[in-house]
Amino acid sequence: MKRVFGAKKDKEPPPSVQDASDRINKRGENVDQKIRSLDAELSRYKEQIKKMRPGPAQEAIKARAMRVLKQKRMYEGQRDMLYNQTFNLDQVAFASEGIKDAQQTMTALKSANKELKGMMKTVKIQDIDNLQDEMMDLMDVSHEIQETLGRSYNVPDDIDEDELMGELDALEADMGMEDEAGVPSYLQPDKEPDLDAELNLPTAPSGHASAQHDRPQAEDELGLPSVPQASIRG
């Protein structure tokens, strides 16, 4: 069968947008090179026309320059057409890349959505509510335990208001008596301050005693003060 009909050739894949854009850009570069070459030739013709006198030779140079200018205009038209094709291909490539990005975004969103659904199956609102209720119960029990551990022993709880006021009055009276006993007289109200009594200062010596103290005492043969005979006899 292959000998009769021949083997089926594999079709080449169609060129991508990038391949077509590269090919057109390469053609545009060749056209630009030709235009630059024509510009250089026109520049030479221009210098020759300036130097030559009017006549048949000058007209021949002008005819050549006109022919070169027409070729340049033709190449410029081709270059503009190639630039337009490149621009269109760039727009198509941009749209294609945008669609690819959108596809990847959709794929990522679908994957994330599936993952979230799987996670939501393991988390239920009722379980969260039950957990919160259990936590509140545990906090209440902990509070009761703390209160029980902090309870005082042998403290009467049957004290009425009258007993409380009586206790406070007695306490105030005791504190008043302690204040009067412990506060110096010069700080107590309606009393003249007795500074000598409070400070326990010694009384000043009289003039007679001072004179006796200033009188020189008798000394013995060693230079020591002699003891009065009355003191020895006593």
UniProtKB/TrEMBL annotation:
What domain of life is recorded for the organism? Eukaryota
One Gene Ontology CC term in the entry: multivesicular body
Give the coiled coil ranges. Answer: 99-148
Keyword Coiled coil among record annotations:
yes
One Pfam family in the UniProt entry? Snf7
Biased-composition ranges, Basic and acidic residues, are 20-32
A GO BP term here is: vesicle budding from membrane
Keywords for this entry?
A: Coiled coil
Q: Where is this region: Disordered?
A: 1-32, 177-234
Q: What InterPro entries does this protein map onto?
A: Snf7_fam
Q: Which PANTHER family match?
A: CHARGED MULTIVESICULAR BODY PROTEIN, CHARGED MULTIVESICULAR BODY PROTEIN 5
Q: State the similarity comment.
A: Belongs to the SNF7 family.
Would you tell me the protein name for this molecule? Answer: Charged multivesicular body protein 5
Query: Whose protein is this, by species?
Result: Citrus unshiu (Satsuma mandarin)
